UniProtKB/TrEMBL annotation:
Gene3D superfamilies: translation initiation factor eif-2b, domain 1 (1.20.120.420), Translation initiation factor eif-2b, domain 2 (3.40.50.10470)
Protein's job: Catalyzes the interconversion of methylthioribose-1-phosphate (MTR-1-P) into methylthioribulose-1-phosphate (MTRu-1-P).
Record key words, sorted: Amino-acid biosynthesis, Isomerase, Methionine biosynthesis
Recorded catalytic activity of this chain's protein: 5-(methylsulfanyl)-alpha-D-ribose 1-phosphate = 5-(methylsulfanyl)-D-ribulose 1-phosphate
Site, Transition state stabilizer: residue positions: 166
The protein's Enzyme Commission number: 5.3.1.23
Pathway: Amino-acid biosynthesis; L-methionine biosynthesis via salvage pathway; L-methionine from S-methyl-5-thio-alpha-D-ribose 1-phosphate: step 1/6
Active site positions: 246
PANTHER family in the cross-refs: METHYLTHIORIBOSE-1-PHOSPHATE ISOMERASE
Family: Belongs to the EIF-2B alpha/beta/delta subunits family. MtnA subfamily.
Protein name in the entry: Methylthioribose-1-phosphate isomerase
Amino acid sequence: MPDITAVTHAQNIRYDKQAEALYIIDQTLLPGEEREIRLTTLDEMVEAIRALRVRGAPAIGICAGYCMYLLARDAWTEDRQAFLRKLTEDGEALNASRPTAVNLSWAIGEMMAVARARLQEPREVLLDALYQKAVAIHEDDIAKCKAISEYGLSLLKEGDGVLTHCNAGPLATSRYGTAQGPFLLAAERGMHIRVFADETRPLLQGARLTSYELQRAGVDVTLICDNMASIVMRNGWVQACFVGCDRIAANGDTANKIGTSGVAILARHYGIPVYVLGPTSTIDMNCPDGDHIPIELRDPEEIKTLWYEKPMALPEVKCYNPSFDVTDHDLIAGIVTEKGICRAPYTESLAALFDDET
């Protein structure tokens, strides 16, 4: 029997307090090699996020919390205003590494708020407060993923087939994950769910990461190319689509890995509900709709040469390589958060999630 705890409790991000060292699993090496790398400098942190060594909106936020703590240690000076300026500059550089995932800016903002509030405290008190906040961000995501998984599983029944796009499991979050969490929870409880995982071009997160995590956990997973989703739906093998998210606008428009909107359009044609699963930290109530979500553009070489010994296109051929697309809110049957399942109209149901915080 597969050891599901090895998957759901994977230490994709690990902070060694005794050594004051931050480690991440380099996701670019999976599934062939599972290797930790240490992040020590701002340049290393920015490169790790930009190169997708750490990826997934919640995981990026968790990583950013620990990064800001380390950067604060390095930036320390008794001139408190100079310290705050340097930490702010470092936070801005870190935030620019991936503009679409709102968890990154959210976590940096949370850490900066602590720094400002404790600015006049002794060094050790301020740094300890920052460390405790980073740990709290991490532990909060673990609790949220468990709750999201429970709510997501309530939408499924024994024997259902579910299509997922990209990777929203433990590697992209903390334990369980968001869109993959219900599948892992079902496996723990002996419930059979069939999962169809899109390979997710051009970086193949579905093939390299999602199928890897689900196979290790004993989940019934079938890997398909992105352009096979339609025939799988037409065959009647899919009863729902579960996807993660990197930013949710106030009206329910959702940014997720490129290709997600195509999945949603196909699902609408075949009468299959699409559910977006993510923590409330991914909801950006200051962003009115999908037109206001910044879309990251990546290196064209990811399309032409990344996975092949020989180029797949002429060097002079132009490429358009957006990392994300936006799924319109009217294509989404529900948004699953740690606080419950939101339904349309999302302008009302998403706002209600934050009523207790005002």
